[in-house]
TrEMBL record:
Pfam families: Inositol_P. Mg(2+) binds at E81, D160, I162, D163, D303. Transmembrane segments: none annotated. This is Inositol polyphosphate 1-phosphatase.
């Protein structure tokens, strides 16, 4: 099967996801309806407040529906972050689903919105909207005969419908001294979709969509899409590398001081703190940062599969930090054991793996 055809479908569903995210932010009334706090057992302990939004769930289910419709053998291999079960103000529980029947989907969403049919219709309009992308704009190699090495049912997909959900909710933009790297705000929000092969757990295709990358007019946003593929020795991506003379390490604001001090004092990195795991890995892929390090096991497979695939298409990769430090050898993040959903050993990402080997010599 053609890898490019699968890529095109994933690019389209990522843009549908981005559209839903933008619509939900554009309407204050709608956005207030959508926000629900996550149950304690679902929360990511690193955040003081972690939100579950209907936008998250709806994006996840819409992606599953569209990809499953186009590639039925993939339908049951698509996994995401969000629990689609919602309880509304009346105490009624419903599972958010997208079906062939548009009216059924509207009724389903309306239950979550306490029978607000206007809001439900607006959301569902985006779910069923046909997406057209300019393949030339996003540098998709239409003429390339890139064939997947695996049968389609031997592939899995991880989705993070809205990475940096807390930033999506708060929308408090804060920059850093580097204009292309944001500390927080809507620009760090990403839609992450990664394809991996079951046999070895290796990411082979990834898409990172930034729904709020640019704001040409106040309150009107345009997105950017980044992608990468690795199939055997074939590597394709649309990354336009940024050359910088500075050594930049992008970290979480909550990173442990011993790692911050080591990177700053021993390795002479400029330290930049930013939110969103997907966003930080993307900055390494684009060359705007040299490394991303996270010492805590606070990310999940849905956070990393898509961005890691892009890194691999650039001869970089994403590694298990603690495992690598203990063994003094490179231990890549893998998706082979589908029971493991958390990256318990932390992360370190490099685009230039030779520089990572220098890191290990210290």
């Amino acid at each position: 099967m053609s890898a490019i055809e699968l890529l095109k479908e994933i690019l389209k569903v990522s843009e549908k996801a981005a559209n839903i995210a933008r619509v939900c932010r554009a309407d204050d009334h709608l956005f207030k309806l959508l926000v629900q706090e996550k149950a304690p057992e679902e929360s990511n302990s690193r955040f003081e407040h972690d939100f579950k939004t209907l936008a998250d769930c709806l994006i996840q289910e819409a992606v599953k529906y569209d990809i499953g419709k186009r590639f039925p053998a993939l339908r049951d291999n698509i996994r995401g972050e969000e629990n689609p079960k919602f309880t509304n103000a009346a105490g009624e529980s419903t599972v958010v689903t997208v079906t062939e029947d548009r009216n059924e989907t509207v009724e389903n969403i309306a239950k979550v919105l306490n029978d607000d049919k206007v809001a439900a219709e607006r959301l569902v309009e985006e779910v069923y909207r046909e997406i057209e992308l300019d393949w030339e704009q996003w540098q998709v190699p239409i003429g390339e005969a890139a064939t997947l090495d695996q049968e389609i049912d031997q592939l899995g997909i991880w989705i993070d419908p809205i990475d940096a959900t807390a930033e999506y909710v708060r929308a408090q933009d804060k920059g850093t001294k580097y204009p292309n790297i944001m500390a927080s705000g809507l620009k760090v929000v990403t839609v992450l979709i990664g394809v991996f092969e079951f046999a070895h757990g290796t990411p082979i295709m990834g898409v990172v969509n930034q729904p709020f990358a640019e704001e040409p007019e106040t309150g009107r946003y345009e997105g950017k899409i980044f992608w990468g593929i690795t199939i055997g020795d074939l590597k394709f991506n649309n990354i336009q590398a940024v050359d910088t003379d500075e050594r930049i390490a992008v970290l979480s604001p909550s990173e442990q001081s011993k790692y911050v001090e080591f990177l700053k004092n021993q390795l002479k990195y400029e330290i930049v703190c930013s939110s969103g795991a997907g966003y930080k890995i993307l900055k390494v892929a684009t060359g705007e940062a040299e490394l991303f390090l996270l010492s805590k096991g606070t990310t999940y497979k849905w956070d990393t599969c898509g961005p890691q695939a892009i890194l691999r298409s650039l001869d970089g990769d994403l590694f298990d930090l603690q495992n690598t430090l203990i063994n003094k050898s490179l231990k890549k993040i893998s998706y082979q054991d589908r029971k493991i959903i958390r990256n318990v050993g932390g992360l370190i990402a490099y685009r230039n793996i030779e520089k990572f080997k220098d890191f290990l010599k210290l």
